[in-house]
Design goal:
By secondary structure, this protein is α/β, with parallel strands linked by helices. Helices cover 25% and strands 29% of the residues.
């Protein structure tokens, strides 16, 4: 298994920290999030990791060098010229990820105690999801296959509009390299993986794996960052 850690985001909700630092280096419990995510990925047995960079990219490169790349093979997917979002970022990093092995995708601002080795690839992709509330949710049929999407604020829906189980996506996924042709055919340079999944759900097989039993924090939001720090402090 290979991995891509999305570390290129601007982190606008974490200002003033992100006025001078990349979001991926925001500390939780005194440790930059990127380091926490790399260690979690490494514990899952991954030795080949790609980190994409854009905002204060040189700080991320310096952080990795200062830590000896955490004892694994880390390559940089450079998006300094244009921030590509998750879908575009995955496609841009293809040269490092192509092959037959599944690819673990992990947002650098996601903190969880989920052992990443527990994720199982089904079909073309497995998305880590939970029953937590959020403004936008994915819909899964009785087999766990992605079949729709709903925006609770606007009422907009895509795919199947009723039935199934609604779950929130948690920023961790396991994908097959076989999805690269579909990514190329998506027709955009900058795009998110979530609408890609929804648009292609009838042709490709995307499944949800519920991780509601584990702790999960999106530390890209100040209130969640505070909660994550409180949780980490409680572990000591």
């Amino acid at each position: 298994m290979k991995a891509l850690i999305f570390a290129a985001g601007l982190g606008t909700r974490l200002k003033p920290f992100t006025l001078t630092h990349p979001k991926a280096l925001v500390p939780v419990g005194g440790e930059p999030m990127l380091g926490r995510v790399i260690r979690a990925v490494k514990e899952a047995g991954v030795t080949d990791i790609v980190v994409n960079v854009h905002h204060f990219a040189e700080q991320i490169e310096q952080f990795l060098a200062a830590n000896g790349n955490f004892g694994v093979n880390i390559r940089i997917s450079d998006e300094r010229s244009l921030l590509l979002d998750t879908g575009g970022g995955l496609l841009h990093a293809r040269r490092f990820l192509d092959g037959t092995e599944p690819i673990l995708l992990h947002n650098a601002d996601v903190l969880t105690d989920l052992p990443l080795s527990e994720l199982t690839l089904r079909g073309d992709a497995t998305l880590a999801v939970s029953s937590r509330s959020s403004s936008r949710q994915l819909r899964f049929d009785s087999s766990g296959r992605l079949c729709g999407w709903i925006n609770h604020q606007s009422g907009e829906t895509k795919g199947m509009t009723e039935g199934g189980d609604l779950r929130s996506f948690n920023g961790i996924h396991l994908v097959s390299p076989q999805i690269f042709p579909a990514l190329e055919n998506y027709g955009a340079e900058v795009f998110s993986l979530t609408p890609f999944y929804v648009k292609n759900a009838s042709e490709l097989e995307f499944y949800g794996q519920d991780i509601s039993q584990y702790k999960w924090f999106d530390v890209g939001r100040p209130e969640s960052l505070a909660a994550a720090n409180q949780w980490v402090d409680s572990l000591h």
